[in-house]
Amino acid sequence: MKFNILFFLILLPLSLFSQKFDHVDNFVKSLEFKHTESIEQVTSKITQPFKSDIERVRAIYFWIAANIEYDYDGIDSYNWENYSTFEDILNATFVNRKGICSGYSHLFERMATLCDIDCEVISGFARADLQTIFVKASNHAWNRVLIDDSWKLIDVTWARDTVRRQVDYFYFLTDPELFILNHYPEDYEAALLEETYTYEDFMNFPLYRPSFHRTDFSNHIPKSGLLRATNDTIRINIQPNYECIMLPIWYDLVEQEWVKVQAGEIEQKDGWLKLFVPRKSDFLLKVGALTQTDTTFSVTEELVYFKVDNK
């Protein structure tokens, strides 16, 4: 299919968006829970003061993200394959306060349903990191929820920010045009988009890391992540929202090794990044950024990945 290489979107800063629900988050955060409390009791407790569906959905989102730990050991050992039904998975996730995407999404669905809110679990392909950039099989589950007669998208698994130990709000009612960048549903209708992107389109999107959105890095969101070098050179239009120094590094997919960008091989000007490609091969290009305040430096190691063909 054909589609515009670039589209522009003014993103509401995440900090402002989260402030709309501070009263919900703070209420849920103030509560104490006993391990003997049932799913029904917890759901009632966290949603009781709220009248609107969107507030109750936010309460559920916040509680799950703040209280359910991602089970890395369990997924590595295939432990979750021992559960025969999703009912067993969501119950184990709730009781153990630990789970994987199927547990997160089915628990979210159950808690929303207890509030008489229509909710569905969506299965599909997710590209989250270097291990899943070339995903070939369905590997993730998330939700869509009906609020004010309109379906909205939620990924409560990715709301669990294990590294920063905070709730990440980006995947709460995310714009479908942004959600599709990392999520491709098995049933495309669940993408909630008028425009059709094929699986091949999805695989050629840039890989956006959570830090890209969390830091409000750019309002300029390329949909084309496959770059072909000309005369061993590529140019990328990035347009950061703030002054920074781009930190690119190559990963040679053939030799399976990282290759540093040398002095003289990079030019950053007017939102453009121009790079000399070090050799003939297929590459991933990881782009990070260095920012400086009056007193400190801050490094974000990975914001976005592109695929680069230099044959």
Which helices and strands occur, and which strands form pairs?
Layout (H helix, E strand, L loop, with lengths): L5 E3 L5 H6 L2 H9 L8 H9 L5 H15 L1 E2 L1 H5 L9 H11 L1 E2 L1 H14 L4 E8 L13 E8 L2 E5 L5 E2 L4 E2 L4 E3 L1 H4 L3 E3 L13 H5 L3 E2 L1 H5 L5 E3 L3 E3 L4 E5 L7 E8 L4 E4 L5 E4 L2 E5 L4 E12 L4 E14 L1
Parallel strand pairs: 2-3, 13-20
Antiparallel strand pairs: 1-12, 4-5, 4-10, 5-6, 6-9, 7-8, 11-20, 14-18, 15-16, 15-19, 17-18, 19-20
Helix pairs in contact: 2-4, 3-7, 4-7, 6-7
Structure description:
- This protein is elongated.
- The longest helix has 15 residues, at 53-67.
- A hairpin with a 4-residue loop joins strand 15 (245-252) and strand 16 (257-260).
- Helix content is 27%, strand content 32%.
- Helix 3 (39-47) packs across helix 7 and helix 4 (53-67) packs antiparallel against helix 7 (101-114).
- The protein has ten helices and 20 strands.
- Strands 11, 13, 15, 16, 19 and 20 form a six-stranded mixed β-sheet that branches. Strands 9-6-5-4-10 form a five-stranded antiparallel β-sheet.
- Mean pLDDT is 91; it is low at 1-17.
- It has helices at 14-19, 22-30, 39-47, 53-67, 72-76, 86-96, 101-114, 176-179, 199-203, 210-214, and strands spanning 6-8, 69-70, 98-99, 119-126, 140-147, 150-154, 160-161, 166-167, 172-174, 183-185, 207-208, 220-222, 226-228, 233-237, 245-252, 257-260, 266-269, 272-276, 281-292, 297-310.
- The protein is an alpha+beta fold and 311 residues long.
- The two termini are 24 Å apart.
